[in-house]
Write a structure and sequence with these properties.
Shape: globular
CATH class of the largest domain: Alpha Beta
CATH topology of the largest domain: Nucleotidyltransferase, domain 5
Order of helices and strands: HHHHHHEEEHEEEHEHHH
Structural class: alpha/beta
Number of helices: 11
Strand order of the largest sheet: 3-2-1-4-7
Distance between the termini: 35 Å
CATH superfamily of the largest domain: Ribonuclease H-like superfamily/Ribonuclease H
Length: 332
């Protein structure tokens, strides 16, 4: 996620001082204050290349790291041993520079493996208030005597497994933003991060590994609610398997016996009440002696209070024709 979102989350959610944020990011305190005072996306600065004492030994260290990665785990040299060997060759820099270079090299190798099709695994255990998972589904519901295909937004807290659903006619940005506000209101707080697939309303371009070009409107919403957004690897739905199973359970259970509704609002009210009832009646899949509702009480106190709703509007400058027409989204 972009640096601006991280700075706002540290200061507004974690109550981190501006001095500490400046120390961690390397920015001046005036720049940090400017980012906190506005919601604009941070400017893109070119990568700065500064001379380093490691420059003359970078190729040697890279060869050593590659060779050690092919060794058995117990036979590999540690980074400290590599640092001592470089010192013998004439390196006069610090150990921290060697450690940082090694971490970045290993991360680049993992990203390259992911792009080549190798799987990476994420932890399936979560702390209270740590994360939620999100997904869309399509279902048919009778509204005012007419069978209507609706887009259902699914949210599921990763620790307590408490879930929330809300129905819409489309999967547009406005519906996505509205669904997040109602879900956070139902949960009574905002978790630290959300886990998503690479939906078009959130990701403009999927890069190598975990690199994502995040949609500007989605990024603004994430920055408003002060949580971090994690995106699954392509074709790796198991990384948010909890909400994937919730979608399947709802399709085979909830909608099968759903009554007809007079309006979309009546349907959403019924969905919220039904979800909360299931929290009380369903045992936790891991903590089997407790219900979802009991685990949810532990989680609710660990989440950030819900801020004001995110409006999500975007302003554009348009040229007006002599007949008072503008062109927007291929419409006049």
């Amino acid at each position: 996620m972009a640096l601006l979102s991280v700075i706002r989350r540290w200061h507004l959610r974690d109550d981190m001082a501006i001095r500490e944020i400046a120390r961690r990011t390397g920015l001046s305190r005036n720049t940090v204050r400017k980012y906190l005072a506005t919601d604009v996306v941070e400017p893109a600065y070119p990568a700065r290349k500064t001379p380093s004492k490691l420059d003359d030994y970078e190729e040697t260290l890279t060869n050593w790291l590659f060779r050690e990665s092919r060794q058995h785990r117990k036979q590999r040299r540690t980074v400290k041993q590599l640092y001592r060997d470089l010192v013998k060759l004439g390196y006069t820099g610090s150990y921290d520079r060697i450690a940082a270079f090694s971490r970045q090299w290993r991360q680049d190798q993992r990203d390259a493996n992911l792009s080549a099709g190798k799987q990476a695994f994420v932890p399936l255990q979560f702390a209270p208030g740590e994360a939620f998972q999100f997904d869309w589904s399509e279902d048919w519901v009778s509204i005012d005597g007419v069978s209507v295909k609706l887009q259902i937004a699914h949210f599921k807290l990763s620790y307590s497994r408490a879930f929330f659903m809300r129905a819409y006619l489309t999967q547009s940005h406005e519906m996505l933003f509205d669904a997040h506000y109602h879900a956070f209101s139902a949960f009574g707080g905002v978790p630290e991060r959300g886990i998503y697939d690479n939906m078009k309303t959130a990701v403009d371009k999927v890069g190598r590994g975990k690199q994502r070009q995040v949609n500007q409107r989605f990024y603004a919403m994430v920055s408003h609610y002060l949580f971090d957004a994690d995106f699954c690897n392509p074709a790796a739905g198991w990384e948010k398997g909890q909400v994937e199973k919730a979608v399947q359970d709802a399709r085979h259970g909830l909608w099968y016996n759903a009554p007809p509704f007079s309006s979309l609002n009546a349907l959403n009210q019924w969905l919220q009440e039904h979800c909360q009832k299931l929290w009380r009646d369903t045992p936790h899949p891991v903590l089997k002696d407790r219900s979802m509702a009991e685990c949810f009480e532990d989680e609710r106190h660990q989440m950030m209070p819900v801020p004001a709703p995110f409006d999500g509007f975007v302003e554009h400058s348009k040229r007006v024709s002599s007949t008072c027409l503008i062109t927007f989204d291929r419409n006049r």
